[in-house]
Amino acid sequence: MPDMRRRFPIITRSRCIIVNGEKILVQKDEEGIYGLPGGRLEFDETLPLCVVRELREEAGIEVDPQRLVYIVEYRGVKKGKYKHEILYFFKCNYRGDVKSKSKALSFEWRDPSDLLKEPFWPEPLAEMLVKDYPEFKRVRFIVYVEGKLSYLNTFELK
To answer: In which region does residue 5 sit, left (phi positive, over 0), alpha (psi from -120 to 50) or beta (all else)?
Structure first.
């Protein structure tokens, strides 16, 4: 058996949850799959600064990460390739007008319940977003293996 650690590195991503009235900011990729905006952590970068950089680069806005809301570990196939990713989701305030700076991504303000009707990644996270919206008064550690919820730990905020 090949050494999976060498063939499939663990990817760390930082993403944000931005609420504007009744809507939440989502990104849509070239394949029509929705997700929360953010991106891959670069060497020598902190998780909060990663989301600041990514939203500036991709959406043209300034974000201010307020607090960590979700930690999601995902192992499985994504877009035909095996992935092992750890994603950190921050509730963020923002300034500016959202405009895509990438041909591969578009941004939309959507009602959270719409996310249950659209292709969303990671899939089961959409249900958590709808349950927790708009206050996000919990911190959740979520593990998905092969697209199924494998572990969930919830911490209530006081």
So the answer is: alpha
Determine the Cα–Cα distance for residues 51 and 126; give it in Å rounded to an integer: 20
What b/e sequence results for 112-148 when a residue is b if at least 16 CB atoms lie within 10 Å of its CB, and e otherwise? bebbeeeebbbbebbebbeebbeebeebbebbbeeee
Number of Cβ atoms within 10 Å of the Cβ of 33: 15
**Token pair recorded at residue 129:** 């977003």
Task: Give the residue extent of every domain in the chain.
Answer: 4-156
Q: Which two tokens stand for residue 14?
A: 């930082």
pTM of this prediction?
Answer: 0.91
CA end-to-end distance (rounded Å), the chain: 47
| Superfamily of the domain at 4-156 | Nucleoside Triphosphate Pyrophosphohydrolase (3.90.79.10)
Question: Which residue bears the tokens 């670069």?
Answer: 42
**CA-derived radius of gyration, the chain:** 15
What are the tens digits of pLDDT across the range 28-48?
999 999 999 999 999 999 999
* DSSP-assigned beta bridge partners for residue 20: 23
> What does each C-alpha distance from 128 to 44, 65, 71 come to in angstroms?
31, 19, 12
